[in-house]
Structures are given as structure tokens and as C-alpha cells.
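Possible race condition, two jobs.
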Amino acid sequence: MKAINNVAVVGAGLVGQGWAIVFARAGMQVSIYDDRQNARAAIFSQVENALADLVEAGLCDDAGTILARIRFAADLKDAVAGCDYVQESVFERIDVKREVSRAIDAFLPAHAVVGSSTSGFPGSAFYEDCRNRKRMMVVHPVNPPHLVPLVEIVPTPWTAPEEAARIRQLMGDIGQSAVSLSREIPGFVLNRLQGALLDEAFALYAEGYATAEDIDRTVRDGLGLRWAFMGPFETIDLNAPKGLADYAERLGPMYSGFAGQRNANRNWVPEAIARADAERREVLPSEQLDARRSWRDKMLMRIIKAKR
């Protein structure tokens, strides 16, 4: 099986830019293709700034060497035709995904594999017409992928198991943390877990039990501290004298009661969304969102450094 040395990143928004850094940081040659008019200078500047932040945080030694491994392709064929792996990260709309998947398929080398960064669509919804679909799958990162290492690998009904295993190995080799799903499910694992928490957060807020800030505080200063280094199963395994089964016996009935409440209609009601947004805008005006995202990324870098 041919080694993966040359990567095409198709779509260079925030996720695609992060992927370009991930692959180039691992020593691979990266070709970026983005069809937005006059976007090249902005993309290059954003990648350069992200690398500078990594250097400042002590998470990267030589930004110039990494940057030198990234080039901009003249067109999609130029990006894909000589690659070993394609990371597609175009706009999250199913018709766009179908169109770009077919275009990639037309130029894909016989050995190359394709992964889509889609955050919720099953690959079978846009790979069905591709002749190379056995080498295509979902490879869903967390934004920004060069800081948050988790990657979900989700095969379609046609994905060859050995190709999915190959990409899991690739993700480990380049420093990402891969999880493999056995089959498709909308939203995969991460967004379904996040969705359950968001559903409960919006319900508690809509029903007036706590402010948005205090709900955020509960996660930030409570649950999130543990979740930064262990998951929910390990958390409850350590929270009862005899482990997970003991915890379930002690607290399972209480959680079942919560589940009964959640069976009611608890949609994200427009009124609650408007109130929560207004509360957030009082804390953080819209014009400060970009600066706060930069702060978030720097905090992530500090956590990464501490975990290392």
C-alpha cells in the first residue's frame, strides 16, 4: 500500500486551513484548492498567523519550514491528481458536497483515499455516484483541527474496511486522535454528545432555571475540568467506590428520571435562542467575536501544552 506523502486540502475555510497545518506539520506536502475569488492571500495570511501563534505557545519550532510545505493549486485537478489523500472541507451543504465529491472522483489517483470534514452528513448522502467510493469516507475533525486532535472516521456502506483502517493509522501518525465508528449515524459521536448537552442547556435556560452564563459556568468550572482529560465512562467509573456498575446502581434511577423529562418536547425555542443570544451579546459584542476566538485558541494551546 502506497505511503501517504502528498495531501490535497479541498476547501480552505477555517477547518481546511487547520487541516493544512496538521498535514504540513507532520512533514507532508500539502496542496490547497479553494474556488473562492481572491481568497489566496487571506488564506495564506491566516495560516501564517496560526503558525505564529503555535510558535509563541511553544507548540511548534519552525513555522517557515511548515509553511514551505503548503502550496496553492491552480485548480482542482492540479491539487488532486498527484495526491495520496484528499481532505475535503468545503461548505457544509449537501448539494455542494455531492458536486465536489464527483469532481474529486474524476481526478483521483487509483491509490488515493478521500475523507470529508462534514460535521453531520453521512458519506452515503454524497458519495453514492462516485466510482472510487470504496476509498471514500467521512473524516470529521473538531474545529480547529490543528489544536483539537479528535477525528471521527465514519465509513459508508461501500467503504473498504482496510481503507478506513489505513486512515485511522494515518491520523495517529500525524498526531491526531482518531475514533472509528462501525457504521453511519447522523451527527456521528461528537455532535450527538454535544447535541444532548445543548438540548438540556437550552431547556434549562428556556424554562428559567439558570442564566446562560451560569449554565456555561457549570460546564466550564465543573464538568469540563474533568472532561479535558477523561471521558464520561471513566468519569463515572471513578466516582463510585466499586466503579461503573456501582455508580449505575446508585444513580441510574435518578438519571432515568431526567430522561423521562427529556422525552417531552424540548426544542430550541426561538424565544430562548433570542434571549440567550442577547445575553451573550451583552457579555461579548459581535465585533469582539474574532478576538475571543483568538483567545479561545490560545487557551487551547495552553491546555495542550499542559497535557503533554
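Job #2 (started ~2 s after job #1):
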Amino acid sequence: MDEGNQSAVSEFVLLGLGHSQDAQVLLFMLFLVVYVTTVIGNMVIMILVITDSHLHSPMYFFLANLSFVDMWLSSVTTPKMIKDFLTENKDISFEGCMCQILFVHFVGGGEMVLLVVMAYDRYVAICKPLHYSTVMSMQRCTGLVVTSWVAGFVHSIVQFVPIMQLPFCGPREIDSFFCDIPLVIKLACMDTYYLDIFINIDCGAIAVTCFILLLISYTYMIHTIRQNSKAGASKALSTCSAHITVVMLYFVPCIIIYVWPLNITWLDKFLAVFYCVFAPLLNPAIYTLRNKEMKNAVKRFRRYCVGPKGNAQCSEM
């Protein structure tokens, strides 16, 4: 981007989710509660995994990392959206807009790969249980998490660099609550047909590939589960069903928006709100409510804090 283009548009205007003042106040309260609950819920999961020795296993190590990713995915866009509900000025600087683009796809792409990593962990646990402790060593688990972050970074940079080169010299209204790539590209003062295709291909490369891998892995795991004993199969199937639910809630909106866009404004807004705001809240809820070990960890934590000398013990944790 040359100097003229950099100075032509210094900020964009986010149109947000609604225009009625009453609706803005209601949405402010709703999303504030959702965001605070999301941050607290994911932090609780991370604290439980770190402090509870019963949860020191690869599955919960990955779950803690998923909670960390979800907390930051929500934090990239939601605080700005909440602030805009109470202000008439919904501007966002050019630099702030580009940062949203970079970090939404950095964190989002990393989460997609992390979900595949979690599926691999469950595959080894269910299909190769005798080799699980050897295959899923802490060194390998750490390497897989680092790989997910690297993949997310590469995915975001590949899109971020060409978008930074676009000339923005006129329109600056973005009909959403954050700077979403398809909407920002439309504001460029040039033909972006090939860039649109490139973005779809890049998003498809990570989203569709990860989604297909997840479907194949869980199909194979469910087939294996059905051949095992009923008691063990029930527990494993419960774990897999929680993972599959998270996968569907996260991948379907992303694929519709970035890979096969329908260009329906209200639908795009709904799906963007879902995967940026509600999915990070639903993930910890699904894993906590459907996971016996997590529920037991919550009970142990509560007993530890409210039992005899509980206040002193909590302060020492």
C-alpha cells in the first residue's frame, strides 16, 4: 500500500447489529453478560486443569488450551462491540481494523487445528489404548499445541498481507460489528474478484480440510466404540459427542461465511455473532456439563474452598 492509500482512509465505521436505542441497551446487557461469563468460564477450566492433579492428562491439557483460545477469540471482537452499543461513534481506526482481521484469523485458524489435535488424542485413546501413554507424551502434546498456533499464524498472515496492500479511498462503512475480511475487501478501490477467490481457497484449505479430518476421525472412533464393551463405549461416546457438538458449532458458521458465502447480510451477522461470541461460551459449557471428571473437579474445588479453613486454602492456591 502506498502512502496515498494509507492516508486516504484512516478509519472505518462499524454499523453494528441494530439501530434502535432500546435494542442497543438490551444487546449491551446481553453481550456483556455473555462475555463476562465466557471469560470466567474459560478461566475456571484453565485453573481447574492446572491445579487439579486428576486432570493432568493430555485430554485436559488440550481442553485448557482450547479454553485459552476461546477466551482470546471472544476478546478480539466482543469488547469493541459492547462499547459501541452505548456510543454513537462506532468508528474503528484503520490499524485497529487490520488488527481485528489479523487476530480473528490467527486465533480462529489455531482453534481449528487444535480441534483436530483433540480428535487425534481421542483417536489414540480409543483405538490404540495400549500405546496411549507412549504416543501422547507431554513433549508431543506441547508440540501439537505449538503446531496449532503456527498454523493459525500462517493462515492469518497469508490473508493479512494482501489485504494490507489494498487501496481504501472512498467507502468506509462495514455492515457488521467487527472488521470481517469479506466486508473489508468490498470497500477497496479496485477489482477484488481474484482476491475473493484467494481468500475462499485459503479459508477452505484450513477449514474444510480440518472439518473433513474431524468427520473421518470421529466416524472411525464411533465405529470402534460400537465394537467395545458397553460400559467403556458409553463413556467414550459421551466424550466424542461433546467434541462433535463443539466441532459443528464452530466449523459450520465459518465455512458458510468464508468458504461458500451466501452474501445474506442478516445471516452473515448471525453466524459471525455465533462463532465469535457464543461458541467460546458454549465450548466450556459443553465440556464441563457433559464431562464427569470436570464436574468432579468442580466439586473438589468447591469443597476445598468452602470446607474447614477453606478461605485460607483458597488464598494459597
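Confidence is low (pLDDT under 50) at residues 1-7.
Logs attached separately.
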